[in-house]
């Protein structure tokens, strides 16, 4: 009976027939099924019976349930004037609002319930700055809080509208601010509209009237120009910005990299070391780049050490930890502290499946490495947990994408490797290589290495019948598509090896076969054949040099030519450390990451396929023009 109810539940879930879905879920008496049903119903914005109270209660009772962050955001969409005011205040006192509705209703509910005048003022101000109101609501809000709100709040509200390029709404509020700020917003709008007089209008704005959005848009608009000291001066006026952290991180990183391209490492350091972003991911990258610049180009190991230590405080995943430990070792080496350097080299060498872990093994003269062993799965302890049952049900009843999402989020919350292994085991049972590898990669990020899942070797015959060594082919596929044969990127690259239509046509012509675009996602063998031959063209172009061919496969040969002109030709380098710097000098984060991931994958796949744990990363990187590889 229970199994029939569960089956019926998922039939109704597919139809979003929530009343019948919940009826069947409750009849099943399985909490996992009930929670799947409730959470998916809450995420349906078209279901009119969803309420803020109900969603919040679910979150409070299930704080680690998958999609909880999305549920928090959706809960705010169900706020209205009938929502319990005390619940609103209690919830947002512990959870900062996410949406405009959240800010508005928190402010309105706080008016009578928050007694601390300073706390109330902050809530009211944020409600005005980040909230969205009807005209009647706005009139009431301004009337009720006229003694709290000031020009600064109106300035911030207009700035927020301009952050999302809503110039119409921004203009609506300009009468609340002084002429100095009006000039600011007129200049911002001109920059957004790419007006010819935008530079003139910006220069007319007095510095005392600068706002974050104005500085961002001006700096962003100047990215096509050579950076100058004036850019640094403007960055120095930027304060730490939590809400727009990711956008600031992009423009900050861009300018830092542009100064690197100009060989102005001091200016690059000044830009990237400014504490503008607060998001851990962006802080981590800024601290690493600051440390690397200080060590390798400014020759200030003490300053580098400070940055790398800060980097380690926000590094948790193996790739980041190994990167930080390697550069700490290099820094201590530069300081003449061989004991500490050796200590960190040994620490990072344990991450033998990572690029920097492999480099550490080379530094220690360890020419072979040992991959981590798969932890034991303790099924008897975890198999009956709600999340495990939920994942199994989602797989059984065809909700594969949701099962993948649940599995990833469950791994994020898992405290033990054994449970992570169990989750990955379950995902692997459905026979989808892509999903298995995808989950295994998340597991690896949480220090649970499962070789057979993370580094599969399918399509054996097709891979062997290519011009590349099989380990390289698998390494590229793993990074390009995670073995998803149906993958189509935003750039319309298709299939396992992510070929664009143009690359497919050109390669098919060069090998003398017909080009079938549909087969790029339907026929793995066909995609592998064209992809490996396309990669072979880059190998021939770069005299068999893996580094340049891999980078070109990601970024294109024109960019490789530019980078060689900027930073030298790695085929001319005789020193491994020069090549490491060359990789880190690559201006594009995607290509830097791509190159390192393919190279580290290559060492692991050689270990699996050739049953040989010798590290050949040094040979791969030191392939010169004369000492070219046979293709």
TrEMBL record:
Keywords: Signal. GO terms for molecular function: hydrolase activity, hydrolyzing O-glycosyl compounds. Residues 461-570 form the Transglycosylase SLT domain. GO terms for cellular component: periplasmic space. CDD domains: Slt70-like. It holds the Pfam family SLT. InterPro entries: Lysozyme-like_dom_sf, Lytic_TGlycosylase_superhlx_U, Transglycosylase_SLT_dom_1. Belongs to the virb1 family. This is Lytic transglycosylase domain-containing protein. The lineage of its organism: Bacteria, Pseudomonadati, Pseudomonadota, Alphaproteobacteria, Rickettsiales.
């Amino acid at each position: 009976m229970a199994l029939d109810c569960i089956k019926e539940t998922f039939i109704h879930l597919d139809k979003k027939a929530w009343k019948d879905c919940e009826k069947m879920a409750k009849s099943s008496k399985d909490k996992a099924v009930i929670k799947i049903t409730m959470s998916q119903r809450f995420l349906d914005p078209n279901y009119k019976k969803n309420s803020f109270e109900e969603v919040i209660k679910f979150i409070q009772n299930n704080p680690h349930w998958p999609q909880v962050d999305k549920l928090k955001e959706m809960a705010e969409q169900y706020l209205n004037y009938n929502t319990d005011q005390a619940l609103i205040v209690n919830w947002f006192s512990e959870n900062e609002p996410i949406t405009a509705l959240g800010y508005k209703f928190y402010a309105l509910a706080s008016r009578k319930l928050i007694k601390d005048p300073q706390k109330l003022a902050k809530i009211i101000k944020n409600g005005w700055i980040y909230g969205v109101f009807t005209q009647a609501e706005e009139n009431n809000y301004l009337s009720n809080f006229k003694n709290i709100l000031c020009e600064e709040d109106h300035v911030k509200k207009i700035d927020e509208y301009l952050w999302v390029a809503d110039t119409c709404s921004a203009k609506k509020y300009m009468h609340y601010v002084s002429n100095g700020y009006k000039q600011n917003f007129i200049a911002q709008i001109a920059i957004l509209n790419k007006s010819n007089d935008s530079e003139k209008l910006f220069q007319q704005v007095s510095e005392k009237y600068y706002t974050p959005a104005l500085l961002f848009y001006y700096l962003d608009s100047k990215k096509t120009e050579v950076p100058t000291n004036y850019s640094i001066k403007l960055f120095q006026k930027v304060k730490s910005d939590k809400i727009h952290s990711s956008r600031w991180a992009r423009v900050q990183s861009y300018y830092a990299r542009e100064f690197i391209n100009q060989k102005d490492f001091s200016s690059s350091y000044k830009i990237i070391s400014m504490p503008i972003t607060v998001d851990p991911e962006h802080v981590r990258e800024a601290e690493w780049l600051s440390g690397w610049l200080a060590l390798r180009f400014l020759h200030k190991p003490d300053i580098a050490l400070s940055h790398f230590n800060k980097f380690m405080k926000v590094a948790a995943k193996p790739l980041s930890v190994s990167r930080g430990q390697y550069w700490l070792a290099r820094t201590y080496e530069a300081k003449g502290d061989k004991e500490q350097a050796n200590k960190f080299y040994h620490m990072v060498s344990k991450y033998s499946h990572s690029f920097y872990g492999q480099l550490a093994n080379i530094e220690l003269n360890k020419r072979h490495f040992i991959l981590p062993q798969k932890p034991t799965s303790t099924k008897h302890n975890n198999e009956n947990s709600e999340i495990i049952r939920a994942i199994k049900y989602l797989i059984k009843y065809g909700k594969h994408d949701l099962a993948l999402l649940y599995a990833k989020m469950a791994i994020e919350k898992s405290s033990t490797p054994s449970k992570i292994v169990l989750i990955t085991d379950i995902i692997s049972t459905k026979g989808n290589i892509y999903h298995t590898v995808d989950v295994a990669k998340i597991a690896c990020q949480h220090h649970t290495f499962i070789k057979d899942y993370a580094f599969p070797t399918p399509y054996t015959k097709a891979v062997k019948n290519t011009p590349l060594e099989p380990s390289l082919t698998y390494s590229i596929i793993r990074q390009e598509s995670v073995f998803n044969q149906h993958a189509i990127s935003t750039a319309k690259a298709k299939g396992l090896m992510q070929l664009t239509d143009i690359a497919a046509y050109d390669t098919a012509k060069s090998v003398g076969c017909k080009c079938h675009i549909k087969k790029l996602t339907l026929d793995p063998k066909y995609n592998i054949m064209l992809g490996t031959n396309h990669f072979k063209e880059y190998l021939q172009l770069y005299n068999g040099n893996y580094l340049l061919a891999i980078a070109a496969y990601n970024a294109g040969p024109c960019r490789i030519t530019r980078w060689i002109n900027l930073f030298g030709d790695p085929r001319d380098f005789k020193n491994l450390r020069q090549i490491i710097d060359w990789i880190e000098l690559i201006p594009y984060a995607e290509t830097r990451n791509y190159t390192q991931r393919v190279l580290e994958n290559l060492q692991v796949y050689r270990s699996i396929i050739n049953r040989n744990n010798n590290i050949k990363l040094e040979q791969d990187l030191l392939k010169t023009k004369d000492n070219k590889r046979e293709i």
